[in-house]
């Protein structure tokens, strides 16, 4: 997607490593304003070439006092001022503005973490119609605070502890919030962002999914020459289905979809995917059976990151071989590989250059991003790389992808390999897990709750426990059930099942699946856990 072609002003986020940076992007896009995130330390030219109307400096784990704390490029302040660009600092971002513009930041006497009340001290655009003395609850997470403001700045709100909570310099168009308006725990935060962007900055909104689609098609047609052929890595999941439909719309039957059975799929998944694709989407798909190739490489591997890297590499070697085969058939080797990579895949993976995540940690290497080998021959086309899952579902609806495809729970490319803890090839773990998972998912569908859950699955634990079945002692496996609600997979809460439902499922599993005598439920949110166990 070419950011310059979007019919909306751009709000650019400079990321300094906050866990909530992506949330700022989402919140702004939900106002139909286009928003992108790049590294906070990007060179000035990367910022100016995007021509943003507003730049938001995110929060971050660093303190402006430490020597290696990240900061924006020299010349940024002067460029913003001479180009009429509005700048908002959030938390660390505010502290950076204060420090770089000649004020002072010090370690706060009292730290402020969590729920706090702030009071408006000066009526201003950010707070719309709020009056002096009005209070609101906000969510704070900081230890440092602004002690002395740069010339021209004024305090517009303070916390109940007296710390600076919001500042502005209307003249120079610099603003700052010490709290996080982007999290839902700041109930009026969204309203504040709306006032700031529309009333203070006068941003024009025009980010529409229809435009995204048209723009993507243009970009694909520009990238792929009229006689080029393209491979699409198709999993049957939401993202690659939408990506394939989009690319197919752009280049027609020069698209060749490849579905890989890596031996890590769910019960009857291969049959289901192949059948529904031909029947409902009329997209040509070739199934490659690579079970032995994947499982032999995974034998004995227990480290989750190792598993992910091995899987990423094997996927690519299969797509290379598929490209070679196509060359024999159609006389030309496909040069491109379409993947259904999403924004969160990029955010959580090893942060590659240009993704704006240079100051945050790698959570796990998604097979299609951080797990890719360095010497790839196929060039990637990732039309959904800047979108969140709910946005992809929206795009899918515009492309008339049938609803059952769009409503499928996400299933990770590394599949059951990240749901069998430890060595996936050990015993009949994969087989047991397939049966347990099928019972769990089918019960969820039967109970009519599939669509209210973001993702549900079972996990095979490499532990055995003692049970008694038919008066006999058993020493069998423990499986865990995980179901979460989420908006974008970046944060999640565990799903509250009715007790009767859990009781029925646990009984069915132990009665029907040989080798399992205990079922537990995972009741952790993300954070502190992640959705998958590995
Ligand atoms: N079995 C597979 N065969 C071919 N490509 C795959 C397979 N599994 C994953 N991929 C590729 O990896 C990408 C990322 O996988 P991911 O699971 O995030 O997306 P998805 O499967 O398309 O959608 P969902 O998140 O809904 O499962 C896919 O979009 C697809 O391009
Ligand atoms: O295609 C994928 N390749 C991967 O390597 C991968 N790892 C996690 N996931 C999916 O991403 C979402 C967030 O998962 P985590 O909380 O476990 O990081 C959840 O929806 C996960 O199922 C993956 N998808
Ligand atoms: N959340 C943040 O941006 C925190 C900023 C800084 N590390 C502080 O503690 O004050
Ligand atoms: Mg998937």
Automatic annotation (TrEMBL):
<dbReference type="InterPro" id="IPR022955">
    <property type="entry name" value="GMP_synthase"/>
</dbReference>
<keyword id="KW-0658">Purine biosynthesis</keyword>
<dbReference type="Pfam" id="PF00117">
    <property type="entry name" value="GATase"/>
</dbReference>
<dbReference type="InterPro" id="IPR025777">
    <property type="entry name" value="GMPS_ATP_PPase_dom"/>
</dbReference>
<feature type="binding site">
    <location>
        <begin position="235"/>
        <end position="241"/>
    </location>
    <ligand>
        <name>ATP</name>
    </ligand>
</feature>
<feature type="domain" description="GMPS ATP-PPase">
    <location>
        <begin position="207"/>
        <end position="408"/>
    </location>
</feature>
<dbReference type="InterPro" id="IPR029062">
    <property type="entry name" value="Class_I_gatase-like"/>
</dbReference>
<dbReference type="InterPro" id="IPR004739">
    <property type="entry name" value="GMP_synth_GATase"/>
</dbReference>
<keyword id="KW-0332">GMP biosynthesis</keyword>
<comment type="function">
    <text>Catalyzes the conversion of xanthine monophosphate (XMP) to GMP in the presence of glutamine and ATP through an adenyl-XMP intermediate.</text>
</comment>
<dbReference type="Pfam" id="PF00958">
    <property type="entry name" value="GMP_synt_C"/>
</dbReference>
<keyword id="KW-0067">ATP-binding</keyword>
<dbReference type="InterPro" id="IPR001674">
    <property type="entry name" value="GMP_synth_C"/>
</dbReference>
<dbReference type="GO" id="GO:0003921">
    <property type="term" value="F:GMP synthase activity"/>
</dbReference>
<keyword id="KW-0547">Nucleotide-binding</keyword>
<protein>
    <recommendedName>
        <fullName>GMP synthase [glutamine-hydrolyzing]</fullName>
        <ecNumber>6.3.5.2</ecNumber>
    </recommendedName>
</protein>
<dbReference type="InterPro" id="IPR017926">
    <property type="entry name" value="GATASE"/>
</dbReference>
<comment type="pathway">
    <text>Purine metabolism; GMP biosynthesis; GMP from XMP (L-Gln route): step 1/1.</text>
</comment>
<dbReference type="GO" id="GO:0005829">
    <property type="term" value="C:cytosol"/>
</dbReference>
<keyword id="KW-0436">Ligase</keyword>
<dbReference type="InterPro" id="IPR014729">
    <property type="entry name" value="Rossmann-like_a/b/a_fold"/>
</dbReference>
<keyword id="KW-0315">Glutamine amidotransferase</keyword>
<dbReference type="GO" id="GO:0005524">
    <property type="term" value="F:ATP binding"/>
</dbReference>
């Amino acid at each position: 997607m070419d950011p310059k072609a979007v019919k909306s002003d751009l709000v650019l986020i400079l990321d300094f490593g906050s866990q909530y940076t992506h949330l700022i992007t989402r919140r702004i896009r939900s106002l139909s304003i286009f928003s992108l995130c790049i590294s906070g330390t990007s060179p000035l030219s990367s910022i100016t070439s995007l021509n943003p109307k507003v730049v938001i400096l995110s929060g971050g784990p660093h303190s402006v006092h430490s020597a290696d704390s990240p900061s924006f490029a020299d010349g940024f302040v002067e460029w913003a001022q001479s180009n009429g660009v509005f700048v908002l600092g959030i938390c660390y971002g505010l502290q950076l503005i204060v420090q770089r513009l000649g004020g002072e930041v010090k370690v706060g006497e009292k730290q402020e973490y969590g729920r706090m009340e702030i009071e408006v001290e000066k009526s201003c655009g950010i707070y719309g119609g709020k009056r002096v003395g009005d209070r609101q609850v906000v969510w704070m997470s900081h230890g440092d605070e602004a002690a002395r403001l740069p010339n021209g700045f004024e305090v517009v709100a303070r916390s109940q502890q007296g710390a600076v909570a919001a500042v502005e310099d209307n003249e120079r168009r610099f603003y700052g919030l010490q709290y996080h308006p982007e999290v839902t725990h700041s109930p009026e935060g969204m309203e504040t962002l709306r006032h700031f962007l529309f009333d203070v900055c006068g941003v024009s909104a025009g980010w529409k999914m229809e435009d995204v689609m048209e723009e993507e098609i243009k970009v694909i047609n520009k990238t792929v020459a009229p006689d080029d052929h393209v491979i699409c890595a198709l999993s049957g999941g939401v993202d690659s289905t939408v990506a394939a439909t989009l690319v197919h719309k752009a280049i027609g039957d020069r698209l060749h979809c490849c579905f890989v059975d890596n031996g890590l799929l769910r019960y009857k998944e291969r049959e289901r995917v192949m059948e529904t694709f031909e029947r409902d989407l009329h997209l040509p798909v070739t199934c490659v059976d690579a079970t032995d190739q994947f499982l032999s490489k995974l034998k004995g591997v227990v480290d989750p990151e190792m598993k992910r890297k091995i899987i990423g590499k094997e996927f690519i070697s299969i797509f290379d071989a598929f490209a070679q085969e196509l060359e024999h058939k159609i006389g030309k080797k496909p040069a491109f590989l379409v993947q259904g990579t999403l924004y969160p895949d990029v955010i959580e993976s090893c942060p590659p250059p240009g993704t704006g995540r240079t100051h945050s940690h790698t959570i796990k290497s998604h097979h299609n991003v951080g797990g890719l080998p360095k010497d790839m021959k196929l060039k990637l086309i990732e039309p959904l790389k800047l979108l969140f899952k709910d946005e992809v579902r929206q795009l899918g609806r515009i492309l008339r992808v049938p609803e059952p495809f769009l409503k499928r729970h996400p299933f990770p490319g590394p599949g059951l390999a990240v749901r069998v803890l430890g060595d996936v090839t050990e015993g009949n773990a994969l087989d047991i897990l397939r049966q347990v998972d099928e019972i769990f998912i089918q019960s969820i569908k039967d109970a009519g709750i599939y669509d209210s859950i973001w993702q549900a699955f079972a996990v095979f634990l490499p532990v055995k426990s003692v049970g008694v079945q038919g008066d006999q002692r058993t020493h069998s496996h423990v499986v865990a059930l995980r179901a979460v609600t989420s908006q974008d997979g970046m944060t999640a809460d565990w799903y509250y099942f009715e007790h009767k439902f859990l009781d029925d499922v646990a009984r069915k599993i132990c009665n029907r699946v040989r080798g399992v005598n205990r079922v537990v439920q995972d009741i952790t949110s993300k954070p502190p856990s992640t959705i998958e166990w590995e």
